Amino acid sequence: MKRQIRESEFVLVVCSEFYLKKLLGQVKPNEGLGVRWEGKLVYNHLYNDGANTKFISVLLDNGKPEHIPVPLQGSTHYRPAKQDDFDRLYWRLRGEPLRNKPPLGKLKPLPSKTRKTNPGLFLAGFIDLTLWNPAEWKAVVYVCDPVNPPWLALVFKKEEPARKIFEQWHQRFGRNDTYEEMRVSVVEGDIPGRDPGYTVYISANIDKIHKRADELGLNIPKDYTMVLGRMHRMNPTPGSKNLEMFKEAYQHFGCYQLCPAILAPEGVKVLPGSGLLKKEIIFRHVSEIKSENDMDSAVLGKPSDSEDEQTTQS
Prior knowledge:
- Helix content is 27%, strand content 25%.
- By secondary structure, the protein is α/β, with parallel strands linked by helices.
- The strands form three sheets. Strands 4, 7, 8, 9, 13 and 14 form a six-stranded mixed beta sheet that branches. Strands 5, 6, 10, 11 and 12 form a five-stranded mixed beta sheet that branches. Strands 1-2-3 form a three-stranded parallel beta sheet.
- Helix 5 (129-135) packs antiparallel against helix 6 (159-173).
């Protein structure tokens, strides 16, 4: 099985509800062991390759998108029973475009611009305050299981703006933050004036934003950069192992899903199908922050009236 997957140019993953239950171990003991073994091989390939060009999700007539394993949900899936989907899948497997694009015409040269002598200011970040303020970020929770990469869920009070926050991120990144432009850090350790715990900080990775802009040929100001971020202080009960369990799962899979969750009357409800796959998360201790130029120095600021804090840093 390992050799066949390695040597194949494409692998079709026929996804059904029963297949997913086998993959997640939600069946009788000793049942579905072959499927779970397949799943581990697929996950390892996805991690080692960095991008998915091999595994293609296929749904039968009664299949639903939520039956697709989480690491494959960000890629295009097909329903071969539909003629259009069959044709698209056929030509993808053939390595041919469905339609040939006409040649591009000549581009008119852009008028020359005089570069400003004053330094430019660039605002970086992925925090839309018109959504974050009404959404009300209240906590983070972790979801771990032996088969899937762990979830880091941002728990909000209001569902509609929370969904829109992640919809905007999907429009910006897709389902995978390939360039790791969004920076997620967890800073542990006591901070004067704060209750014991750790801080989860969402901001922007300036170097990687500049790198992507350069690759796309975008001329953005680099003299001064202002980062807009959001942070939340977590105060777990003494002896809590939730963060440690997430760290272990992250180290095992090498990636995680950043996803939204809602405070519901029955408890925390994770919103399915809204996750953003990320490979990078930064774990630090406050003792490592030595200067104001450190990206995470914002977490040492004075506490605000709200647990969910807005930060800017130049």
